[in-house]
Amino acid sequence: MAIDPAKPDAAYLAFWNEYHFCSLTTQRPDGTPHLVPVGVTYDPDAGLARIIASRASRKVRNIQAAGPGGMRVTVCQVDRARWATLEGVATVSDDPEAVAEAVRRYADRYRQPKPNPELVVIEITLDRAMGRG
Predict the structure, then answer these.
(1) How far apart are CA 33 and CA 15, in angstroms?
(2) How many Å apart are CA 24 and CA 46, to the nearest integer?
(3) DSSP structural state of residue 44
(4) For residues 99 and 46, what is the distance between their CA atoms, to the nearest angstrom?
(5) Can you tell me the distance from the alpha carbon of 56 to that of 34, in angstroms, rounded to the nearest whole number?
(6) What is the predicted pLDDT for the residue at 79?
(7) Euclidean distance between CA atoms 122 and 60, whole angstroms
(8) Is residue 67 within 8 Å of 108, Cβ to Cβ?
(9) Which of 32, 34, 48, 130 has its CA 20 to 30 A from that of 63?
(10) Which residues contact 30 (CB under 8 A, 6 or more apart)?
(11) Is the pTM of the predicted complex or chain greater than 0.85?
(12) d(Cα 113, Cα 106) in Å, to the nearest integer?
């Protein structure tokens, strides 16, 4: 079922606030898919999904290899028959304010992450959402 990522209904947003790990799909430079588990936070007001990651991780390097315009990616979470997917264009930021906001949101949904001087944020500008609750 298609959902406006900027205007999700209460049940969809509540699902994204529950403690569930997600999967992120990026493309390697050779075009093959790279699927990894991640923690995702969803901010419909900003039109973003955020993922904190180490700058040396494969997912970060895949997105950076796509160039300054970013890479189209998908994040998804599943809980039995419920599922939710967010899609958009991902970019990587090391801006301290952007990273701090991503860490704050991650701590609210999951737990406080360990200090990591190599931390960056993957910001996904959302243009599509779907799911079934």
Answers:
(1) 26
(2) 20
(3) T
(4) 15
(5) 15
(6) 97
(7) 7
(8) no
(9) 130
(10) none
(11) yes
(12) 8
Q: For residue 20, count CB atoms less than 10 angstroms from its CB and return exposed for 0-12, middle for 13-18, buried for 19 or more.
A: middle
Q: Specify whether the backbone of 19 is left (phi greater than 0), alpha (psi in -120 to 50) or beta.
A: beta
The CA distance from 38 to 59, in Å, is 10
Instruction: For residues 111 and 19, give the distance between their C-alpha atoms in angstroms, rounded to a whole number.
Output: 10
Q: How far is CA 60 from the centre of its chain?
A: 12
Tokens linked to 31: 């075009």
- Of 5, 37, 13, 34, which is closest to residue 23 (Cα–Cα)? 37
Q: Please state, in angstroms and rounded to a whole number, the distance separating the CA atoms of residues 53 and 37.
A: 11
